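Response to reviewer comment R2.3. The reviewers asked that we include at least one raw input/output pair. We reproduce the pair for UDP-glucuronosyltransferase here without editing.
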Amino acid sequence: MLQIRNLLILVCIGQTLGAEIFMATMGGTKSHKIPFWELAKGLIRRGHNITFLSGFPADFHVEGLHEVTPAMLVDYIQNYTNWDLLGSRMKGEMPIKPWDGIRYAFESCDAMLGDAETKELANRNFDLAILDGAFPECIQGIIYQYKIPFMYINTVGFYTGSLSLAGNPASYSITPNFYSRFTDNMSLYERAVNTAMQIGQNIVHTYVVRRTHRVLRDHLGPDIPHPYDISRNVSFILQNGHAVVSYPRALNPNVAEVACIHCKPARPLPKDLEDFIAAAGTSGFIYVSMGSSVKAANMPESLRRMLVKTFARLPYHVLWKYEGSAADMQDLTPNVKLSRWLPQQDILGHPSLRVFVTHGGLLSMFETVFHGVPVVTMPVFCDHDVNSAKAEVDGYAIKLDLETLSTNQLYKAIMKVIHDPRYRNAARYRQNLLLDQKSTALQTAIYWTEYVLRHNGAYHLQSPARNMRQASKD
Ligand SMILES: *[C@@H]1O[C@H](CO)[C@@H](O)[C@H](O)[C@H]1NC(C)=O
Ligand SMILES: *[C@@H]1O[C@H](CO)[C@@H](O)[C@H](O)[C@H]1NC(C)=O
Ligand SMILES: *[C@@H]1O[C@H](CO)[C@@H](O)[C@H](O)[C@H]1NC(C)=O
Ligand SMILES: *[C@@H]1O[C@H](CO)[C@@H](O)[C@H](O)[C@H]1NC(C)=O
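Raw output as returned:
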Protein backbone atom coordinates (compact mmCIF):
# COMPACT_ATOMS: atom_id res chain seq x y z
CA MET A 1 0.00 0.00 0.00
CA LEU A 2 2.74 2.39 1.10
CA GLN A 3 4.73 1.47 -1.98
CA ILE A 4 1.85 2.21 -4.29
CA ARG A 5 1.36 5.56 -2.63
CA ASN A 6 5.04 6.40 -2.98
CA LEU A 7 4.87 5.39 -6.59
CA LEU A 8 1.85 7.64 -7.14
CA ILE A 9 3.63 10.56 -5.50
CA LEU A 10 6.66 9.93 -7.68
CA VAL A 11 4.54 9.86 -10.81
CA CYS A 12 2.81 13.10 -9.85
CA ILE A 13 6.06 14.89 -9.05
CA GLY A 14 7.60 13.34 -12.13
CA GLN A 15 5.25 15.39 -14.26
CA THR A 16 6.87 18.64 -13.20
CA LEU A 17 10.36 17.41 -12.39
CA GLY A 18 12.91 16.59 -14.99
CA ALA A 19 12.07 18.76 -17.96
CA GLU A 20 14.52 19.45 -20.77
CA ILE A 21 14.70 23.22 -21.11
CA PHE A 22 16.35 25.19 -23.91
CA MET A 23 17.59 28.69 -23.02
CA ALA A 24 19.12 31.13 -25.49
CA THR A 25 20.34 34.69 -25.73
CA MET A 26 21.61 36.49 -28.83
CA GLY A 27 22.54 39.52 -26.70
CA GLY A 28 25.82 41.09 -27.76
CA THR A 29 27.11 41.60 -24.21
CA LYS A 30 27.85 39.00 -21.60
CA SER A 31 25.57 40.50 -18.95
CA HIS A 32 22.59 39.09 -20.86
CA LYS A 33 23.64 35.67 -19.57
CA ILE A 34 23.37 36.52 -15.89
CA PRO A 35 19.59 36.27 -15.32
CA PHE A 36 19.59 33.04 -17.38
CA TRP A 37 22.34 31.51 -15.27
CA GLU A 38 20.50 32.31 -12.06
CA LEU A 39 17.24 30.84 -13.30
CA ALA A 40 19.11 27.82 -14.72
CA LYS A 41 20.80 27.12 -11.39
CA GLY A 42 17.46 27.35 -9.60
CA LEU A 43 15.78 25.03 -12.11
CA ILE A 44 18.64 22.51 -12.02
CA ARG A 45 18.23 22.22 -8.25
CA ARG A 46 14.64 21.19 -8.99
CA GLY A 47 15.66 18.40 -11.30
CA HIS A 48 15.50 20.04 -14.73
CA ASN A 49 18.18 19.83 -17.41
CA ILE A 50 19.22 23.03 -19.13
CA THR A 51 20.82 23.59 -22.52
CA PHE A 52 21.91 27.22 -22.85
CA LEU A 53 22.97 28.81 -26.14
CA SER A 54 24.88 32.12 -26.22
CA GLY A 55 27.83 33.85 -27.87
CA PHE A 56 29.96 33.81 -24.71
CA PRO A 57 31.86 30.62 -23.75
CA ALA A 58 31.20 29.36 -20.23
CA ASP A 59 33.66 30.45 -17.57
CA PHE A 60 32.55 27.98 -14.96
CA HIS A 61 30.97 24.58 -14.87
CA VAL A 62 27.52 24.01 -13.40
CA GLU A 63 26.35 20.41 -13.08
CA GLY A 64 23.26 19.92 -15.23
CA LEU A 65 23.91 23.01 -17.35
CA HIS A 66 25.02 22.30 -20.89
CA GLU A 67 26.29 25.47 -22.57
CA VAL A 68 26.29 25.69 -26.35
CA THR A 69 28.46 28.48 -27.79
CA PRO A 70 28.59 28.19 -31.60
CA ALA A 71 32.11 29.27 -32.62
CA MET A 72 30.87 31.36 -35.55
CA LEU A 73 28.57 33.34 -33.27
CA VAL A 74 31.33 33.80 -30.68
CA ASP A 75 33.68 35.12 -33.39
CA TYR A 76 31.03 37.38 -34.85
CA ILE A 77 30.28 39.00 -31.48
CA GLN A 78 33.97 39.35 -30.59
CA ASN A 79 34.66 41.16 -33.82
CA TYR A 80 31.51 43.25 -33.53
CA THR A 81 32.18 44.39 -29.97
CA ASN A 82 35.85 45.31 -30.26
CA TRP A 83 34.73 48.88 -29.74
CA ASP A 84 35.76 52.00 -27.86
CA LEU A 85 32.37 53.06 -26.56
CA LEU A 86 33.83 55.46 -24.00
CA GLY A 87 35.84 57.28 -26.66
CA SER A 88 32.85 57.81 -28.96
CA ARG A 89 30.62 58.87 -26.10
CA MET A 90 33.19 61.44 -24.95
CA LYS A 91 33.40 62.84 -28.46
CA GLY A 92 29.62 63.16 -28.48
CA GLU A 93 29.27 60.59 -31.27
CA MET A 94 26.77 57.76 -31.31
CA PRO A 95 28.57 54.90 -29.53
CA ILE A 96 27.09 52.45 -32.05
CA LYS A 97 26.73 53.64 -35.65
CA PRO A 98 23.19 53.26 -37.03
CA TRP A 99 24.10 50.63 -39.63
CA ASP A 100 26.05 48.63 -37.02
CA GLY A 101 23.00 48.68 -34.78
CA ILE A 102 20.82 47.49 -37.67
CA ARG A 103 23.03 44.73 -39.07
CA TYR A 104 23.74 43.01 -35.74
CA ALA A 105 20.52 40.98 -35.52
CA PHE A 106 20.52 39.37 -38.96
CA GLU A 107 24.29 39.02 -39.32
CA SER A 108 24.64 37.32 -35.94
CA CYS A 109 21.67 35.12 -36.90
CA ASP A 110 23.39 34.07 -40.10
CA ALA A 111 26.63 33.31 -38.20
CA MET A 112 24.80 31.26 -35.60
CA LEU A 113 22.62 29.23 -37.98
CA GLY A 114 25.62 28.46 -40.21
CA ASP A 115 27.51 26.83 -37.33
CA ALA A 116 27.68 23.03 -37.00
CA GLU A 117 27.03 23.14 -33.26
CA THR A 118 23.74 24.96 -33.82
CA LYS A 119 22.71 22.47 -36.50
CA GLU A 120 23.18 19.60 -34.04
CA LEU A 121 20.51 21.13 -31.83
CA ALA A 122 17.92 20.17 -34.45
CA ASN A 123 18.22 16.54 -33.31
CA ARG A 124 17.37 17.35 -29.71
CA ASN A 125 14.00 17.37 -27.98
CA PHE A 126 12.96 20.02 -25.50
CA ASP A 127 9.86 20.66 -23.39
CA LEU A 128 10.22 24.43 -23.10
CA ALA A 129 12.33 27.28 -24.47
CA ILE A 130 13.28 30.43 -22.56
CA LEU A 131 14.60 33.19 -24.85
CA ASP A 132 16.05 36.63 -24.35
CA GLY A 133 13.37 39.27 -25.01
CA ALA A 134 16.15 41.31 -26.67
CA PHE A 135 16.86 39.86 -30.16
CA PRO A 136 14.64 36.76 -29.81
CA GLU A 137 13.72 36.60 -33.53
CA CYS A 138 16.52 34.37 -34.75
CA ILE A 139 16.05 31.73 -32.05
CA GLN A 140 12.32 31.81 -32.68
CA GLY A 141 13.06 30.19 -36.01
CA ILE A 142 14.80 27.31 -34.23
CA ILE A 143 12.17 26.75 -31.58
CA TYR A 144 9.33 26.96 -34.10
CA GLN A 145 10.58 23.63 -35.40
CA TYR A 146 10.34 22.01 -31.96
CA LYS A 147 6.66 22.99 -31.61
CA ILE A 148 7.11 23.75 -27.91
CA PRO A 149 5.89 26.59 -25.68
CA PHE A 150 8.35 29.41 -25.09
CA MET A 151 8.93 32.20 -22.59
CA TYR A 152 11.13 35.30 -22.47
CA ILE A 153 13.44 36.78 -19.94
CA ASN A 154 13.26 40.41 -21.03
CA THR A 155 16.86 41.17 -20.01
CA VAL A 156 16.90 44.82 -21.14
CA GLY A 157 14.10 45.80 -18.77
CA PHE A 158 13.34 49.14 -20.44
CA TYR A 159 13.07 47.57 -23.92
CA THR A 160 9.37 47.40 -24.77
CA GLY A 161 9.45 45.65 -28.16
CA SER A 162 8.83 42.09 -27.02
CA LEU A 163 6.34 43.19 -24.37
CA SER A 164 4.35 45.17 -26.97
CA LEU A 165 4.21 42.26 -29.41
CA ALA A 166 2.72 40.18 -26.59
CA GLY A 167 -0.02 42.82 -26.18
CA ASN A 168 1.28 44.79 -23.20
CA PRO A 169 0.53 48.51 -23.20
CA ALA A 170 3.60 50.75 -23.58
CA SER A 171 2.19 54.26 -23.70
CA TYR A 172 4.69 56.65 -25.29
CA SER A 173 3.63 59.41 -22.90
CA ILE A 174 4.75 57.60 -19.72
CA THR A 175 7.14 54.83 -20.87
CA PRO A 176 10.60 56.27 -21.51
CA ASN A 177 12.34 54.74 -24.50
CA PHE A 178 15.20 52.44 -23.49
CA TYR A 179 17.65 54.48 -25.56
CA SER A 180 16.52 57.85 -24.14
CA ARG A 181 17.52 59.81 -21.05
CA PHE A 182 13.92 60.41 -19.94
CA THR A 183 11.94 59.38 -16.88
CA ASP A 184 8.23 58.52 -16.73
CA ASN A 185 7.52 62.20 -15.99
CA MET A 186 8.19 63.89 -19.34
CA SER A 187 7.48 67.40 -20.54
CA LEU A 188 5.37 67.81 -23.69
CA TYR A 189 8.53 68.22 -25.77
CA GLU A 190 10.14 65.13 -24.23
CA ARG A 191 7.01 63.09 -24.89
CA ALA A 192 7.15 64.14 -28.52
CA VAL A 193 10.81 63.10 -28.78
CA ASN A 194 10.05 59.87 -26.94
CA THR A 195 7.22 59.10 -29.38
CA ALA A 196 9.41 59.87 -32.39
CA MET A 197 12.17 57.59 -31.05
CA GLN A 198 9.69 54.80 -30.49
CA ILE A 199 8.12 55.08 -33.93
CA GLY A 200 11.55 55.33 -35.56
CA GLN A 201 12.73 52.22 -33.75
CA ASN A 202 9.61 50.31 -34.73
CA ILE A 203 10.22 51.10 -38.40
CA VAL A 204 13.87 50.06 -38.17
CA HIS A 205 12.90 46.94 -36.23
CA THR A 206 10.40 45.95 -38.91
CA TYR A 207 13.19 46.13 -41.48
CA VAL A 208 15.63 44.19 -39.25
CA VAL A 209 13.09 41.45 -38.62
CA ARG A 210 12.28 41.15 -42.31
CA ARG A 211 15.99 40.62 -43.02
CA THR A 212 16.19 38.13 -40.14
CA HIS A 213 13.19 36.25 -41.53
CA ARG A 214 15.02 35.94 -44.85
CA VAL A 215 18.06 34.48 -43.04
CA LEU A 216 15.81 32.04 -41.19
CA ARG A 217 14.19 30.84 -44.40
CA ASP A 218 17.56 30.44 -46.10
CA HIS A 219 18.83 28.18 -43.33
CA LEU A 220 15.73 26.44 -42.01
CA GLY A 221 13.32 26.24 -44.92
CA PRO A 222 10.66 28.42 -46.56
CA ASP A 223 7.82 27.61 -44.15
CA ILE A 224 9.27 29.44 -41.13
CA PRO A 225 6.63 32.06 -40.24
CA HIS A 226 7.44 35.74 -39.81
CA PRO A 227 9.09 36.21 -36.36
CA TYR A 228 6.38 38.70 -35.33
CA ASP A 229 3.79 35.94 -35.81
CA ILE A 230 5.79 33.51 -33.71
CA SER A 231 6.44 36.21 -31.14
CA ARG A 232 2.82 36.90 -30.25
CA ASN A 233 2.44 33.28 -29.09
CA VAL A 234 4.81 33.76 -26.13
CA SER A 235 3.48 31.97 -23.06
CA PHE A 236 5.08 33.98 -20.33
CA ILE A 237 7.50 36.90 -19.87
CA LEU A 238 9.91 37.23 -16.95
CA GLN A 239 10.47 40.98 -16.97
CA ASN A 240 13.86 42.22 -15.75
CA GLY A 241 12.40 45.14 -13.83
CA HIS A 242 10.35 46.01 -10.79
CA ALA A 243 8.09 48.96 -10.00
CA VAL A 244 10.59 50.02 -7.31
CA VAL A 245 13.72 50.08 -9.51
CA SER A 246 12.20 50.62 -12.95
CA TYR A 247 8.71 52.22 -13.10
CA PRO A 248 5.23 51.15 -12.03
CA ARG A 249 3.45 50.08 -15.23
CA ALA A 250 0.59 48.00 -16.60
CA LEU A 251 1.59 44.41 -17.36
CA ASN A 252 -0.60 41.56 -18.59
CA PRO A 253 -1.21 38.45 -16.44
CA ASN A 254 1.49 36.53 -18.33
CA VAL A 255 4.26 38.88 -17.16
CA ALA A 256 6.07 38.68 -13.81
CA GLU A 257 8.76 41.11 -12.68
CA VAL A 258 12.00 39.46 -11.59
CA ALA A 259 14.47 42.33 -11.12
CA CYS A 260 17.42 41.27 -8.94
CA ILE A 261 16.99 37.56 -9.68
CA HIS A 262 20.79 37.44 -9.39
CA CYS A 263 21.16 39.54 -6.21
CA LYS A 264 22.76 37.93 -3.18
CA PRO A 265 23.80 38.98 0.32
CA ALA A 266 27.49 39.84 0.54
CA ARG A 267 30.04 37.23 1.54
CA PRO A 268 33.39 38.08 3.17
CA LEU A 269 35.97 39.48 0.73
CA PRO A 270 39.26 37.77 -0.17
CA LYS A 271 42.06 38.65 2.26
CA ASP A 272 44.00 41.02 -0.05
CA LEU A 273 40.91 43.14 -0.69
CA GLU A 274 39.88 43.15 2.97
CA ASP A 275 43.42 44.22 3.97
CA PHE A 276 43.40 47.03 1.41
CA ILE A 277 40.03 48.27 2.72
CA ALA A 278 41.01 47.91 6.37
CA ALA A 279 44.18 49.95 5.78
CA ALA A 280 41.99 52.99 5.04
CA GLY A 281 40.58 52.82 8.58
CA THR A 282 37.16 54.34 9.24
CA SER A 283 37.14 56.68 6.23
CA GLY A 284 36.00 53.84 4.00
CA PHE A 285 36.47 53.15 0.30
CA ILE A 286 35.04 53.76 -3.18
CA TYR A 287 34.29 51.14 -5.80
CA VAL A 288 34.67 51.93 -9.51
CA SER A 289 33.51 49.66 -12.34
CA MET A 290 32.32 50.34 -15.87
CA GLY A 291 30.98 46.79 -16.25
CA SER A 292 32.08 44.21 -18.79
CA SER A 293 30.44 45.47 -22.00
CA VAL A 294 32.08 48.89 -22.24
CA LYS A 295 35.66 47.55 -22.63
CA ALA A 296 37.10 50.18 -20.29
CA ALA A 297 40.60 49.00 -21.19
CA ASN A 298 40.08 50.65 -24.63
CA MET A 299 39.27 54.01 -23.02
CA PRO A 300 40.89 57.21 -24.33
CA GLU A 301 44.05 58.31 -22.53
CA SER A 302 42.41 61.64 -21.57
CA LEU A 303 39.69 59.85 -19.60
CA ARG A 304 42.16 57.48 -17.99
CA ARG A 305 44.25 60.43 -16.80
CA MET A 306 41.15 62.22 -15.55
CA LEU A 307 40.15 59.22 -13.45
CA VAL A 308 43.68 58.74 -12.07
CA LYS A 309 43.90 62.44 -11.13
CA THR A 310 40.50 62.43 -9.45
CA PHE A 311 41.23 59.30 -7.42
CA ALA A 312 44.60 60.78 -6.34
CA ARG A 313 42.77 63.73 -4.77
CA LEU A 314 40.28 61.61 -2.84
CA PRO A 315 40.87 61.00 0.88
CA TYR A 316 39.62 57.44 0.35
CA HIS A 317 40.87 54.12 -0.88
CA VAL A 318 39.60 53.22 -4.34
CA LEU A 319 38.95 49.72 -5.72
CA TRP A 320 38.91 49.95 -9.50
CA LYS A 321 37.84 47.13 -11.81
CA TYR A 322 40.11 47.54 -14.82
CA GLU A 323 40.77 44.88 -17.46
CA GLY A 324 43.71 46.59 -19.12
CA SER A 325 47.37 46.13 -18.31
CA ALA A 326 48.62 47.60 -15.02
CA ALA A 327 51.68 48.76 -16.98
CA ASP A 328 49.48 51.50 -18.54
CA MET A 329 48.95 52.86 -15.05
CA GLN A 330 52.38 54.07 -13.94
CA ASP A 331 50.87 57.27 -12.53
CA LEU A 332 48.52 55.52 -10.09
CA THR A 333 48.60 56.71 -6.45
CA PRO A 334 48.91 54.13 -3.64
CA ASN A 335 45.31 54.66 -2.46
CA VAL A 336 44.07 52.96 -5.66
CA LYS A 337 44.00 49.21 -6.26
CA LEU A 338 43.32 47.79 -9.73
CA SER A 339 41.85 44.39 -10.39
CA ARG A 340 40.68 42.59 -13.53
CA TRP A 341 37.86 40.95 -11.68
CA LEU A 342 36.17 41.91 -8.43
CA PRO A 343 33.30 40.22 -6.54
CA GLN A 344 30.93 43.11 -7.14
CA GLN A 345 28.08 42.14 -4.83
CA ASP A 346 30.40 41.27 -1.95
CA ILE A 347 31.94 44.74 -2.36
CA LEU A 348 28.57 46.49 -2.61
CA GLY A 349 27.50 44.79 0.62
CA HIS A 350 30.67 45.81 2.49
CA PRO A 351 29.89 48.15 5.41
CA SER A 352 32.86 50.47 4.62
CA LEU A 353 31.78 51.19 1.03
CA ARG A 354 30.88 54.89 0.58
CA VAL A 355 29.90 55.15 -3.09
CA PHE A 356 29.81 53.11 -6.30
CA VAL A 357 31.06 54.83 -9.49
CA THR A 358 29.36 52.99 -12.36
CA HIS A 359 28.38 53.12 -16.05
CA GLY A 360 24.76 52.60 -15.04
CA GLY A 361 24.21 49.09 -16.43
CA LEU A 362 20.84 47.69 -15.40
CA LEU A 363 22.15 44.78 -13.32
CA SER A 364 24.62 47.04 -11.49
CA MET A 365 21.80 49.47 -10.69
CA PHE A 366 19.65 46.64 -9.28
CA GLU A 367 22.57 45.37 -7.20
CA THR A 368 23.31 48.79 -5.77
CA VAL A 369 19.70 49.15 -4.60
CA PHE A 370 19.70 45.61 -3.21
CA HIS A 371 22.76 46.54 -1.10
CA GLY A 372 21.60 50.11 -0.37
CA VAL A 373 24.60 51.95 -1.88
CA PRO A 374 24.38 55.41 -3.56
CA VAL A 375 26.02 55.88 -6.97
CA VAL A 376 27.75 58.29 -9.32
CA THR A 377 26.92 57.23 -12.88
CA MET A 378 28.68 57.90 -16.19
CA PRO A 379 26.28 56.46 -18.79
CA VAL A 380 27.86 55.15 -22.00
CA PHE A 381 25.32 53.50 -24.31
CA CYS A 382 22.15 51.43 -24.69
CA ASP A 383 19.94 51.74 -21.57
CA HIS A 384 22.59 53.35 -19.30
CA ASP A 385 21.05 56.82 -19.60
CA VAL A 386 17.51 55.75 -18.86
CA ASN A 387 18.67 53.59 -15.92
CA SER A 388 20.67 56.52 -14.53
CA ALA A 389 17.75 58.93 -14.95
CA LYS A 390 15.59 56.65 -12.83
CA ALA A 391 18.24 56.42 -10.11
CA GLU A 392 18.57 60.20 -10.14
CA VAL A 393 14.83 60.85 -9.65
CA ASP A 394 14.86 58.27 -6.87
CA GLY A 395 17.55 60.36 -5.18
CA TYR A 396 20.41 57.89 -4.81
CA ALA A 397 22.49 58.97 -7.81
CA ILE A 398 24.36 61.81 -9.41
CA LYS A 399 24.50 61.38 -13.17
CA LEU A 400 27.50 62.80 -15.02
CA ASP A 401 27.98 63.39 -18.72
CA LEU A 402 31.14 61.90 -20.22
CA GLU A 403 31.09 64.45 -23.03
CA THR A 404 31.71 67.38 -20.67
CA LEU A 405 33.24 65.59 -17.70
CA SER A 406 36.12 67.20 -15.80
CA THR A 407 38.27 66.08 -12.89
CA ASN A 408 36.70 68.71 -10.71
CA GLN A 409 33.17 67.64 -11.53
CA LEU A 410 33.82 63.99 -10.85
CA TYR A 411 35.59 64.83 -7.57
CA LYS A 412 32.71 67.01 -6.43
CA ALA A 413 30.07 64.44 -7.37
CA ILE A 414 31.83 61.69 -5.43
CA MET A 415 32.29 63.91 -2.36
CA LYS A 416 28.70 65.10 -2.50
CA VAL A 417 27.24 61.59 -2.64
CA ILE A 418 29.43 60.60 0.30
CA HIS A 419 28.84 63.64 2.49
CA ASP A 420 25.19 64.49 1.82
CA PRO A 421 23.23 61.83 3.76
CA ARG A 422 20.22 62.18 1.45
CA TYR A 423 21.86 59.93 -1.15
CA ARG A 424 22.58 57.10 1.26
CA ASN A 425 19.14 57.44 2.84
CA ALA A 426 17.42 57.31 -0.56
CA ALA A 427 19.37 54.15 -1.46
CA ARG A 428 18.34 52.52 1.83
CA TYR A 429 14.72 53.56 1.28
CA ARG A 430 14.68 51.88 -2.17
CA GLN A 431 16.45 48.85 -0.72
CA ASN A 432 13.70 48.39 1.88
CA LEU A 433 11.01 48.63 -0.77
CA LEU A 434 12.76 46.22 -3.12
CA LEU A 435 13.22 43.60 -0.41
CA ASP A 436 9.57 43.76 0.70
CA GLN A 437 8.10 41.19 -1.71
CA LYS A 438 6.07 38.08 -1.08
CA SER A 439 8.63 35.85 -2.76
CA THR A 440 12.13 36.33 -4.09
CA ALA A 441 12.62 37.03 -7.80
CA LEU A 442 14.11 33.56 -8.25
CA GLN A 443 11.15 31.85 -6.55
CA THR A 444 8.78 33.86 -8.74
CA ALA A 445 10.68 32.92 -11.90
CA ILE A 446 10.81 29.22 -10.98
CA TYR A 447 7.11 29.18 -10.13
CA TRP A 448 6.08 30.60 -13.50
CA THR A 449 8.50 28.46 -15.47
CA GLU A 450 7.12 25.30 -13.88
CA TYR A 451 3.59 26.66 -14.34
CA VAL A 452 4.20 26.87 -18.09
CA LEU A 453 5.67 23.34 -18.03
CA ARG A 454 2.73 21.92 -16.04
CA HIS A 455 0.17 23.33 -18.47
CA ASN A 456 2.27 22.89 -21.60
CA GLY A 457 2.09 26.63 -22.36
CA ALA A 458 0.09 29.46 -20.83
CA TYR A 459 -2.09 30.36 -23.80
CA HIS A 460 -5.07 31.04 -21.49
CA LEU A 461 -3.13 34.03 -20.03
CA GLN A 462 -2.44 35.72 -23.36
CA SER A 463 -4.01 39.08 -24.11
CA PRO A 464 -6.03 39.45 -27.33
CA ALA A 465 -4.21 42.77 -27.80
CA ARG A 466 -1.28 40.75 -29.17
CA ASN A 467 -3.22 40.21 -32.40
CA MET A 468 -3.87 43.90 -33.03
CA ARG A 469 -0.56 44.52 -34.76
CA GLN A 470 -0.19 42.66 -38.02
CA ALA A 471 3.25 41.66 -39.11
CA SER A 472 4.19 43.14 -42.44
CA LYS A 473 4.54 40.27 -44.83
CA ASP A 474 7.16 40.32 -47.52
C1 LIG B 1 19.58 15.21 -18.18
O1 LIG B 1 20.66 15.04 -19.05
C2 LIG B 1 21.38 13.86 -18.81
C3 LIG B 1 22.63 13.87 -19.70
O2 LIG B 1 22.31 14.32 -21.00
C4 LIG B 1 20.49 12.65 -19.07
O3 LIG B 1 21.19 11.46 -18.81
C5 LIG B 1 19.28 12.75 -18.14
O4 LIG B 1 18.37 11.73 -18.43
C6 LIG B 1 18.59 14.09 -18.32
N1 LIG B 1 17.56 14.23 -17.30
C7 LIG B 1 16.34 14.61 -17.57
C8 LIG B 1 15.47 14.83 -16.39
O5 LIG B 1 15.94 14.80 -18.70
C1 LIG C 1 35.00 42.22 -38.52
O1 LIG C 1 34.43 43.50 -38.57
C2 LIG C 1 34.85 44.30 -39.67
C3 LIG C 1 34.30 45.72 -39.50
O2 LIG C 1 33.01 45.73 -39.00
C4 LIG C 1 34.40 43.63 -40.96
O3 LIG C 1 34.78 44.39 -42.06
C5 LIG C 1 35.01 42.24 -41.03
O4 LIG C 1 34.56 41.55 -42.15
C6 LIG C 1 34.66 41.43 -39.78
N1 LIG C 1 35.37 40.18 -39.77
C7 LIG C 1 34.77 39.02 -39.48
C8 LIG C 1 35.66 37.83 -39.44
O5 LIG C 1 33.59 38.93 -39.23
C1 LIG D 1 1.42 28.50 -30.14
O1 LIG D 1 2.38 27.53 -29.85
C2 LIG D 1 1.86 26.23 -29.64
C3 LIG D 1 3.03 25.32 -29.28
O2 LIG D 1 3.99 25.33 -30.28
C4 LIG D 1 1.15 25.74 -30.86
O3 LIG D 1 0.56 24.48 -30.61
C5 LIG D 1 0.08 26.73 -31.25
O4 LIG D 1 -0.50 26.34 -32.46
C6 LIG D 1 0.67 28.11 -31.40
N1 LIG D 1 -0.38 29.06 -31.65
C7 LIG D 1 -0.28 29.97 -32.60
C8 LIG D 1 -1.47 30.87 -32.75
O5 LIG D 1 0.69 30.06 -33.32
C1 LIG E 1 7.15 66.12 -13.11
O1 LIG E 1 8.05 67.08 -13.60
C2 LIG E 1 7.64 68.42 -13.40
C3 LIG E 1 8.59 69.33 -14.12
O2 LIG E 1 9.91 69.00 -13.85
C4 LIG E 1 7.56 68.70 -11.88
O3 LIG E 1 7.13 70.01 -11.64
C5 LIG E 1 6.58 67.71 -11.26
O4 LIG E 1 6.58 67.86 -9.86
C6 LIG E 1 6.95 66.27 -11.61
N1 LIG E 1 5.90 65.38 -11.15
C7 LIG E 1 6.15 64.30 -10.41
C8 LIG E 1 4.96 63.49 -10.04
O5 LIG E 1 7.28 64.00 -10.06
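The chain has a mean pLDDT of 93. The CA atoms of residues 268 and 346 lie 7 Å apart. Further pairs are available on request from the corresponding author.
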